[in-house]
Amino acid sequence: MALFNRFKDGLKKSREKIGEQLSSTFKLHPRINEELWESLEEILISADVGSSATLKITDSLREKAKKQKISDSSEIKNLLINEIESILASPGSQILKNTKQIILVLGVNGSGKTTTIGKLASRTAKDGHKLVLAAADTFRAAAIEQLQIWADRAGADLVKHERGSDPAAVVFDSIKAAFARQADFLIADTAGRLHTQTNLMEELKKIKRVAAREAEDWDIKTLLVIDANTGQNAIAQTDMFNQAIGVDEIALTKLDGTAKGGIVIAIVNQFHIPVSYAGLGEKIEDLEVFNPKNFAKAIVGS
Ligand SMILES: Nc1nc2c(ncn2[C@@H]2O[C@H](COP(=O)(O)OP(=O)(O)O)[C@@H](O)[C@H]2O)c(=O)[nH]1
Ligand SMILES: [Mg+2]
């Protein structure tokens, strides 16, 4: 229950937008009619759920309402929660599950990569695991220092080079360090500059190649960090990183400050990439394992 409340608080803004609009439309149309469906579609689309996921949801709801002979619109709410949950359902996160894993953390500048790594490092270290962090965002000013602060807080080892150096070389050295220290996990920060997109993608591919070559029996996973405030552009970001090196899982950050939480539904519906973590604030403890049911309930309002 505590976890659900955490989610509920964090998603307050999204719920205010979606949940309250839903409540008023259910009140306005107590009996199910065409206007109710249209209004439901509008609410979902305006909440960044995207047209394809919205139609999938409303088509299925229409069918269920018909089959189950539901005429009272208030009964749609629970069905809607189930629909959202079923789109978001995944077999569960594999990241940080089994040891000997390299996690490449991807995402555009400012999305929350370094912060998310800090939060993940802290919880992993608390679980008694040994980890090495790789400061492979060598491009951005202060990126290395920022990761150092998080590493110190978490009690993790950090491997860094000078600013401007080759990120693949940082990853190479951090793999050697992870072996030498018998670490369980290696988490690599990466650059996220967008104006030199092609170079960035080539750089990420090189990092992945080096990791695969140097750590043959380690599992390499990619975690894409997306700022929930991004709205529809999050789709383009996911597409770009996924095409370049493949995205295994997503961490959605800043859900606490946005009414655009519905974007999660659009992303998972389109790419079938699971969302593993939700960032609900700036502090070290403000990261939750993403739970589809709790998310659906929190966003719709129960
Ligand atoms: N409110 C809120 N802020 C966040 C969250 N995650 C990251 N931030 C903030 O977003 C900003 C950019 O984060 P940073 O980790 O530096 O992004 P990076 O450029 O991708 O490494 C920082 O000010 C973070 O404190 C979150 O879940 N909620
Ligand atoms: Mg960073």
Question: Tally the helices: what do you get?
Answer: 12
Query: How much is the average pLDDT?
Result: 93
Q: Give the strand order of the largest sheet, numbering strands 1, 2, ... along the chain.
A: 3-2-4-1-5-6-7-8
CATH class of the largest domain: Alpha Beta
According to DSSP, the number of beta strands is: 8
**Which fold name corresponds to the CATH topology of the largest domain?**
Rossmann fold
Rounded radius of gyration (Å):
21 Å
Shape: elongated
Give the low-confidence spans.
Answer: none
User: Which percent range describes the beta-strand content?
Assistant: 5-15%
**Separation of the first and last Cα atoms:** 13 Å
Q: How would a textbook summarize the main sheet?
A: 8 strands, mixed
Structural class: alpha/beta
What is the helix/strand order?
Answer: HHHHHEHEHEHEHEHEHEEH
Number of domains: 2
Heteromolecules bound:
guanosine-5'-diphosphate, magnesium ion
CATH arch. level architecture of the largest domain: 3-Layer(aba) Sandwich
In CATH, the homologous superfamily of the largest domain goes by the name: P-loop containing nucleotide triphosphate hydrolases
Helical content stands at 40-55%
